[in-house]
Amino acid sequence: MRNFSKSITGIWAGMALGALILLPFHYKLLGKDATPPPTMSVDASPVVRNAQAVTSWAPVVKRVAPSIVNIYSTTIVHFHMEESPFFNDPFFRQFFGNQFPFPGESHDITRKEESLGSGIIVSSDGYILTANHVISGANVVKVALSGSSGKEYTARIIGSDPRTDVAVLKINATGLPAATLGDSGQLEIGDVVLAIGNPFGLGQTVTMGIVSALGRHGYHGLARYQDYIQTDAAINPGNSGGALVDAEGRLVGINDWIASRSGGSEGIGFAVPINLARNAMDSLIAHGRVIRGYLGITLEDVTPALAQGFDYPKTSGAVVGGVLPDSPAARAGLKDGDIITELNGKPVADADSLTLDVTERAPGTEVKLTLFRDGKNRTLTVRLGELPEAETARQSKGGQYSTSSTTTDALSGVTVEDLNQDARDQLKMPDSVKGVLVVDVDPNSNAAAAGLQVNDVVTEINRSAITNTDQAVKLCEQAKGRYILLKIWRREGDFSGTTYLSVDNRKQAE
Predict the structure, then answer these.
(1) Is residue 247 within 8 Å of 191, Cβ to Cβ?
(2) Is 133 a catalytic site residue?
(3) Which of 58, 63, 245, 474 is most deeply buried (CB count within 10 A of its CB)?
(4) Cα separation of 220 and 234, whole Å?
(5) Do 308 and 351 sit in the same domain of this protein?
(6) Mean pLDDT within 250-275
(7) 424 and 444 housed in the same domain
(8) HEC string of 405-466?
(9) How would residue 31 be classed by pLDDT, with cut points 50, 70 and 90?
(10) Are residues 329 and 343 in the same domain?
(11) Mean pLDDT of all residues in the chain?
């Protein structure tokens, strides 16, 4: 169980994604060499919500508990230690002995790390669902069945998907008590749920609560694709990978993480919906990896400030920050600054929901996107591609350049300069990128509050392209509205792309 003890609000607020990801899988795309899916029991009917009060959940627990397993993973860690005067201190040696190198020596140390978690049997022939972080990096994974026998198996890792924090294991056994899979899309806030797992290694434990919220997303440092079920059913370390079941005992989620200051359950737990997990599982079993659709765009949410900058009358939808060359989106005619308002006629709430709304669609699927562009609505049809295996990482930037001061009311506290070849080489900037380079940002400025960073390249101001600092100053001086809309090019590690920022045009942020 991962515990984020301080804050769960670290949301990636700049560029949303290097490419819009779909988590789809359709059996017709398996191909003749793919492993067929296991036979599973599925009941997608909604839970009965008008039943009489229940005095005991024992019948449900008895039916589900045999499907929940304990998982023990072992990881062998190798590291090298050089000599240190600190290690040779007699006081230090008194407590730690001679396991650390003496002067003139070095040690290669091997250490065995063990962790525990939970899992769910989803087929009678031994397929097991769990959380990826339970088995990530493990050399050996052991699965212990519940019940009096507690029979133990060495599991084979079929595949793992860090982007949804889902993993699939397989043990050589038949006739196992498989859980019945439900439909997490049928859940409603207030539905009763039970969490079953192995907290703190105590053995199988059942806790009860309700669905506190649905569709939780935007938590930095967790799975890339998030649609969490939030529950107040107690979840503790060791519960990760265990079952969240509805009132009829059907698997609706995989327990994943908690928000806590103490390290234990404080009534805010999160589970991966079974619909999301099952899509990943099917593809992992068939191909050993998750096949995903691909548009080739960066996305960001429509804030009130961005909506005003685009003269867009709503705050729902997703802004296209950039379109990658020769991508499905580029071939369909999407442009930077388009606001996607509907997918196949369904309203888009934000960037994350747009991603999740298309998770059922595989590469090759055609989708209709309704766009707001230049004050008008239009519709484009896009045939999804397949996301390349390698995804780029988002990393911090380094290196600044000599400054030349140019400031405006809206960009007061910001220093920019004309682009030169040194800057292009250091940022690996394509020749097609034109604009001015940001070399300093006052952390108390309006621009900093909007998200402008050193090494950003401002390419447009209020939808007008710029190529030098004089143009930038002139356009800012001419700006009349409350906000100035900036289009920027940014490099984050190996990823680069464009996005939009809206900067308060008042002299000081209130």
Answers:
(1) yes
(2) yes
(3) 245
(4) 23
(5) yes
(6) 88
(7) yes
(8) CCCCCCCCCEEEEECCHHHHHHHCCCCCCCCEEEEEECCCCHHHHHCCCCCCEEEEECCEEC
(9) low
(10) yes
(11) 79
Catalytic residue among 73, 118, 123, 133: 133
450, 384 in Cβ contact below 8 A? no
Mark whether 274 and 238 lie in a shared domain: yes
Q: Six-digit token pair at 392?
A: 């780029």
129 and 230, same domain (yes or no): yes
Q: Which of 73, 160, 165, 212 is catalytic?
A: 165
502 is catalytic: no
pLDDT of the residue at 148: 65
CA distances to 24, 109, 155, 365, 367 from 294, in Å: 11, 43, 33, 10, 12
Whole domain around residue 353: which residue ranges?
A: 293-386
Q: Are the beta carbons of 504 and 491 closer than 8 angstroms?
A: no
Say how many C-beta atoms besides its own lie within 10 A of residue 36's C-beta.
10
Confidence of residue 334 (pLDDT cuts 50, 70, 90): very high
Cβ–Cβ < 8 Å for 269, 255: yes
Catalytic residue status for 220: no
Catalytic residue among 123, 146, 184, 240: 240
Number of domains in the chain: 3
User: If pLDDT is split at 50, 70 and 90, which confidence band does 392 have?
Assistant: very low
More confident site: 403 or 209:
209
**CATH number of the domain where residue 190 is located:** 2.40.10.120
Tokens 């939970």, residue located: 118
d(CA 113, CA 75): 5
In this structure, are 274 and 170 located in the same domain?
yes
- Cα separation, 410 vs 421, whole angstroms: 28
